[in-house]
Amino acid sequence: MTPAALELDRITKRFGPLVANDAVSLSLAQGEVLALLGENGAGKTTLMNILFGHYRADEGEVRVMGRPLPPGQPRAAIAAGVGMVHQHFTLAGNLTVLDNVLIGSEPLLRLRSRRAEARTRLLDLAARFGLPVDPDARVADLSVGERQRVEILKALYRDARILILDEPTAVLARPEAERLFGTLRGMTGQGLSIVFISHKLHEVMAASDRVAVLRAGRLVAERRTTDTTPAELAELMVGRRVARPRRAARAPGPPVLTADRVTVVEKGETRLDAISFEVREGEILGIVGVSGNGQATLGRLLSGLARPSTGALALGGRDMARLSPRALVREGVGRIPEDRHAEGAIGELAVWENAILERARDPAFARAGLVRRAAARAFAADLIARFDIRGAGPDTRTRLLSGGNMQKLILGRTLAMNPRFVLANQPTRGLDEGAIAAVHARLLEARERGAAILLISEELEEALGLADRLQAIVKGRLSDPIPAEEADTRRLGLLMAGVWEVPHAA
Amino acid sequence: MRLERRTHVPLAAAALAPLAAVGLALLLAAGLIAAAGVSPLAAYAELLRGALGSRLALTETLARATPLILTGLAAAVAFRARVWNIGAEGQFYGGALLTAWAGHALLAGGPPVLGVPALLLLGMAAGALLLLGPVALRLSLGVDEVVTTLLLNFAVLLFVGLMIEGPLRDPLAFGWPQSVPVASDLRLPDLVPRSRLHVGLLVALAAAALVWAVNARTVWGAETRAAGLNPRAAAFAGVSLPRTLLGVAALSGGLAGLGGATEVLGVTGSVTTNLSPGFGTAGIVVAMLAGLHPAGVVASAVFLATVFVGADAMSRATEVPSFIADVIMSASLLAMVVALLLVTHRVAR
């Protein structure tokens, strides 16, 4: 019998009093796709970091093709054919795709890098595994989906035989995710073995051969995917039942925010092309689409960081196109940014400082240019209590919060001012089920209260569960809106593929 | 071996880091002193006596600390907002030159109550302008301010040389290249009679207190910190990066220029090209040892002044050259950089 491609044998890892992994044993057969399912904090990432040599296990052993891996050495893991695609990409934004793939794969002392050969090899891998990339594009200019492809290619370029993907779909839209899983299937056909970490049931069901469920550091179950159901996995993962809230019927009021044929040109490129939409009081408008189709610019436009080149943007009937971020906030615009680490909060600042960051010059938090620290701390304490932000006090460094709690902080500071319009850009990206349900409930509460909400999402379930109407964004253009009642995954899938344009052309 | 970010930085470690760095630097220098054939303990005792052992020594050390406090604050203010001002030396000279010229030609004969503050403000303005240019270039064209501010140091020093050999040359200086002197009633009064310690020390201490208040208590101070830590998130939250960074540039350059102004008005009365024995660059060390904290700046400025003044005395009494002071300064900067890394990170294997 051939040895398993990968074996984890009773891995235990402690961080102080916390047992992140408790005697976890797993094996992966060659050509198999194993899903590692668990909530945030269940120990999935720790386990994979041990496997890859980022951490050293306190007990236990990792074996690749029957041979033990020396612990704590990523180089040894790479040499043994283990490739890891991290959730937070490890790419250098100012270098090209080719440079990023090459970094670290060439001997330091070689005088010239063999770029021509490397390019051929990269393009060859890209074609073979269905991961199209432009080797000369600057990584900073790529969408997240494209960056992920670069990460995977980086691992393949180093001859990975076992690929570990940490939450690979956290940043992908449904069609992109489906394509990724199709790609992964093709890879197993060529002998690769794959472990992917996920907390999304539908993709685990769709893409894996076998599922291992982690909860609180323990392996609680292993199932053949064909022998289990999403409901069973959900219970195993959470330990109880959770359900996302659904919106209740509510008649919308008058339009709060209207965009009329707005075009945005950034760095000489038309990012948004004559888009029109309106968001009404007490309504959620969902903008769905594959990442990199103009969502980021739409987010910047409605956050006060980008200006329309032509077209009109009005808030409550008044022009808002020229308003700065601060002025927008004063006008009652709440903004939940796409990337909470890069834009939403500053990790090194205390929770209270982030809580008032957008309104630092608001009379509630500043007097005569001085920070009203007591008021700001009280506000933060109030947010922590009202929005159930766990593991934090007003003076906690914000980077110590988990993703879900950081998002609750951003959501809290946004909703606490009772905004009449809310931009929610990928509000649940990377969050676990519990946190997603909490964020959804808050957004629906705001809608109930009469806020007009624009939800930009790459998650179809999310858009279908929350939005009253939906528009698809493709290459900077928006489809006409369709009511949520008429939308299903198939129709949305077509819209997101840009199929709505066909009838107009015909 | 890898470095991992600590989730929690112990306060004691952060506070002890500069002391450990200084200790290590003194230990390294002790090796060199021993190599020069002198007992390190005896040499350091000589150094301490020379810097702190008498009233005169003490005033000399504090006089030397005064410009270091101001250039240290200049670096601390800038670095906190991630504006890499390496040009405090040039800004110092810019402030000194404008002060000397105005104190001789523009404001001489006027009432000192107005003249002295006006001269200090002019010195600040000159320093501020010298940093506003590089920061404006960074904002508009993305020019790295490390390069521009560093190179401006040489340009300013050459300009000072040009001026004091030419239009601003003091005709009564017996051929010494030295600028025209500031009117004597516009000089800063001495703090201790018959010493070089002048009221500038109080100006520097007030500046430190002011910088602390601005950093810790004002909205602007919070915004500069946010802009330094994460410019994208700061911009998203509505902090105007150009306005914030230009403000930082004005304050940082102004503080360095104020250093030059107080040195001229308090100590020399005129400008020479050796007015500063590297106060600008030493200011960077002062700020780093201080962890960019204004109170720490005062402490580390006094420390470095002690080393420099004491090393002179030590070299007179022993065989150790006074250059050992530069070694101690440089070694403590290097040790501090390592110490800071170890405070925020831990070594994981």
From TrEMBL, chain A:
Residues 6-241, 257-500 form the ABC transporter domain. It comes from the Bacteria. Keywords: ATP-binding, Nucleotide-binding, Repeat, Sugar transport, Transport. Pfam families: ABC_tran. CDD domains: ABC_Carb_Monos_I, ABC_Carb_Monos_II. SMART domains: AAA. GO terms for molecular function: ATP binding. This is ABC transporter ATP-binding protein. It comes from Rubellimicrobium aerolatum.
Automatic annotation (TrEMBL), chain B:
The lineage of its organism: Bacteria, Pseudomonadati, Pseudomonadota, Alphaproteobacteria, Rhodobacterales. It is found in: Cell membrane. Keywords: Cell membrane, Membrane, Transmembrane, Transmembrane helix. The chain crosses the membrane at residues 61-79, 91-110, 116-139, 146-164, 197-214, 278-311, 323-343. Its main location: membrane. It is a multi-pass membrane protein. This is ABC transporter permease. InterPro entries: ABC_transp_permease (IPR001851). CDD domains: TM_PBP1_transp_TpRbsC_like.
